[in-house]
Amino acid sequence: MGNECEFFDKIANEWDSTRTVDASKITELVKMAWLEPGFNVLDAGSGTGVLLPFIKKAIGSAGKITAVDFSANMLAKAEEKYGGLGGITFTVADIMEFEPETDLFDAVLCFNFFPHIKDKLKFMTRMRSHLKEKGFLVIMHDISRQHVNAVHRDSAAVKNDRLASAETVGGWLITAGYQVTKTLDAADRYFIKAIKN
Fold first, then answer.
1. Which of 138, 140, 117, 137 is nearest to 190 (CA)?
2. How far apart are CA 68 and CA 123, in angstroms?
């Protein structure tokens, strides 16, 4: 974990310039999640906050976001960019040890982050404990699973961080006490929504 945190701390300043943000695709992914105005949302593995303005637009001024990342440098970038949106709490923490200070969440969003989690079943179980009844977890990427795995394969720090098929991840979610309501394992995106049973 330490090595990966160092890796992300080091590349925080360059991170946003290394990837293109496809706003229309991210908007579509967030729409598929069905966030509602006033929702309390956890952005797990927020990084430089790419998802934050899209969540904020969906949940409105009454909604709240908790952005959590283990890289202080990445999260500082997120706060610098989006702190002015209001209603966002930035928390430097390992998501596996994170304890919310607020109420339970309506939704946990995990965007371009899931492969970096070592114990995926434990993560799902922990996120379930942070969700309200009928709250949901969304795991999504704005590129294909094959693309994710190819990118990670070429980087020493994250070469073992793989994204499994939606079918496999869906099976893990059922084991962790969720009902899977939507999966998409497509040529240009990846999306799974699962509701707390």
1. 140
2. 14
Measure the CA–CA gap between 62 and 45, rounded to whole angstroms.
23
Q: Token digits for 70? A: 């283990």
Q: Are 7 and 72 in contact (CB under 8 A)?
A: no
For the chain, how far is it from start to end, CA to CA, in angstroms?
30
Residue 113 to residue 116: CA distance in whole angstroms: 6
Structure letter (DSSP) for residue 96 = T
Neighbours of 32 (CB within 10 A): 15
Rounded to 5°, the CA angle 2-104-120 comes to 40
Give the C-alpha separation, 50 to 42, whole Å.
14
Q: What global pTM score does this model have?
A: 0.88
> What would the two tokens of residue 98 be?
């994170």
Specify the DSSP element, H or E, that contains 74.
helix 72-82
Roughly what angle, to the nearest 10 degrees, separates helices 52-59 and 72-82?
A: 50
φ, ψ at 36 (rounded to 5°):
-120, 155
**pLDDT, tens digit only, all 197 positions of the chain:** 455 556 555 554 564 555 667 899 999 999 999 999 999 999 999 999 999 999 999 999 999 999 999 989 889 999 999 999 999 999 999 999 999 987 899 999 999 989 988 899 999 999 999 999 999 999 999 988 988 888 767 666 566 678 989 999 999 999 999 999 999 999 999 999 999 99
